[in-house]
């Protein structure tokens, strides 16, 4: 199956296509092909299906709505029509020139920086990054990121990663369990947001930061992340460990993007799991 013949795929709508064309000079590694859907189950699943058929670095999948959108740990990502921007990109950080394993581990951190930069460029709204994969305004979630690995057939050592993100654009009738924990761009700004500009600027920012990543500019990425992540320093957190509930105070992130937490027993480096801010 070719990308162009993927079932249900449509041409980019005019507003997205025009904004996408305007950022062409800023795009080098991403956007080699695009797939657009009015509705799909999950943009990550579409991108993973294409990547598993033969890695297609730079493929962009975008949808107006998802019926099975998800975040970390299998949580559902509420994706009603017209309420958000839902995008997935096929990336190959394992081809980084220096320390490819480190590049892969830093992909979500890199995407957080890029997404915050793209949102600010498109709308003027500054958002904080919450480790490891959320954008916040105040204590409310504006956007989330999900990275999932896909093995390229015939190349077991060459790992593609599907990097998906969802941004809440319009306020919606969120489920009760989400209503007091999420926000949207138009809610925060009090005005409409140009979805095409948001689409183009977030991807252009992701392209820039992805080039930094595969080029080995890890310290620049980490420094940019720290500037936008106040919760990574001196914040009280708790999490579930095999030994039970743990508590500590954030210190920083390390060179691989793990969250460093000071506990009564010493420093711990958290690489996964559910961390809750007190």
- Helix segment count? 7
What percentage of residues falls in helices of 4 or more residues?
A: 25-40%
The topology string of helices and strands comes to HEHEEHHEEEEHHHEEEEE
Average pLDDT, all residues? 89
Find the structural class using helix and strand composition: alpha+beta
CATH class call of the largest domain: Alpha Beta
What form results from the Cα inertia axes?
globular
The count of strands amounts to 12
How is the biggest beta sheet arranged? 7 strands, mixed
Strand order of the largest sheet: 1-2-3-7-6-5-4
Beta content: 25-35%
The number of distinct structural domains comes to 2
Please name the fourth-level CATH homologous superfamily of the largest domain. Answer: Bira Bifunctional Protein, Domain 2
What is the third-level CATH name, the topology of the largest domain? Answer: BirA Bifunctional Protein, domain 2
So what's the oligomer here? single chain
CATH second-level architecture of the largest domain: 2-Layer Sandwich
Uncertain runs: none
């Amino acid at each position: 199956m070719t990308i162009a013949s993927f079932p249900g795929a449509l041409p980019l709508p005019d507003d997205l296509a025009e904004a996408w064309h305007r950022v062409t000079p800023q795009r080098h590694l991403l956007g080699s092909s695009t797939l657009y859907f009015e509705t799909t189950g999950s943009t990550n699943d579409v991108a993973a299906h294409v990547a598993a058929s033969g890695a297609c670095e730079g493929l962009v999948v975008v949808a107006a709505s998802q019926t099975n959108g998800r975040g970390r740990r299998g949580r559902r990502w509420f994706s009603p029509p017209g309420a958000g921007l839902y995008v997935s990109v096929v990336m190959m950080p394992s081809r980084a020139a220096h320390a490819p394993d480190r590049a892969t581990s830093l992909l979500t951190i890199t995407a957080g920086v890029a997404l915050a930069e793209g949102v600010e460029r498109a709308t003027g709204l500054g958002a904080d990054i919450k480790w490891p994969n959320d954008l916040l305004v105040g204590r409310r979630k504006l956007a989330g990121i999900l990275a999932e690995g896909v093995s390229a057939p015939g190349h077991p050592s060459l790992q593609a990663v599907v990097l998906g993100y969802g941004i809440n654009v319009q306020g919606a009738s969120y489920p009760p369990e989400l209503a007091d924990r999420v926000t949207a761009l138009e809610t925060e700004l009090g005005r409409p947001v140009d979805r095409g500009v948001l689409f183009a600027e977030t991807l252009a920012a992701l392209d820039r930061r992805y080039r930094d990543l595969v080029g080995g500019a890890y310290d620049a990425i980490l420094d940019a992340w720290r500037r936008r992540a106040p919760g990574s320093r001196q914040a009280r957190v708790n999490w579930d460990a095999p030994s039970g509930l743990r508590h500590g105070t954030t210190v920083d992130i390390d060179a691989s993007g793990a969250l460093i937490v000071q506990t009564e027993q010493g420093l711990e480096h958290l690489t996964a799991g559910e961390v809750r801010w007190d």
